[in-house]
User: What shape does this take?
Amino acid sequence: MAADFTPYTSEQREACLAVFDENCPEFFAPNERADYARFLDAVGPAYRLCRRDGQVVGAFGLMPGSTPDEAHLNWILLSPSAQGAGLGRAIMTEAAAQAAARGIVRVAIAASHRSAPFFARFGAEEHIRTEDGWGPGTHRVDMVWRP
Ligand SMILES: CC(C)(COP(=O)(O)OP(=O)(O)OC[C@H]1O[C@@H](n2cnc3c(N)ncnc32)[C@H](O)[C@@H]1OP(=O)(O)O)[C@@H](O)C(=O)NCCC(=O)NCCS
Assistant: This one.
């Protein structure tokens, strides 16, 4: 079955945290878990679950920015078992469609040094690199994407 996208509900909080845990510490620093839990507790259906065969395998959020034509691409993550199969590309296509529908022309992405090359493939440009910005050994790369 192909992947689909559905609005986040709090029933899927643990499933999302489980995907985070699968990506920690390779992609996320351990200290980021509390931030993600707080994000999940505050976020609504604007955050999107990525499901494959009915199972939550990832999520992403195109969240409002400081002006109506700006947004942030937040907490995009996939289970390692679902990576490398084109779902990341499907998420970027979905995010671009959401952006177009909402008149968003500028998307800020706070990536890591490991995920930044993925976003660069879709045209995101690096603006600021902060050594150890997400924790020891995990560098923060602030990018701008014009989908
Ligand atoms: C980053 C992530 C979402 C990519 O998803 P994915 O499903 O593996 O990506 P896809 O299979 O759709 O790959 C699309 C293209 O990007 C490339 N790509 C994937 N991850 C890459 C990376 N880290 N660096 C460079 N290129 C990458 C693929 O090779 C593929 O290239 P191709 O189209 O030429 O074949 C996924 O690896 C992930 O969840 N990582 C852990 C969490 C994370 O780091 N999130 C970002 C936080 S800011």
Notes: The chain has a mean pLDDT of 95. Residues 4-145 form a domain with the Aminopeptidase fold (CATH 3.40.630.30).
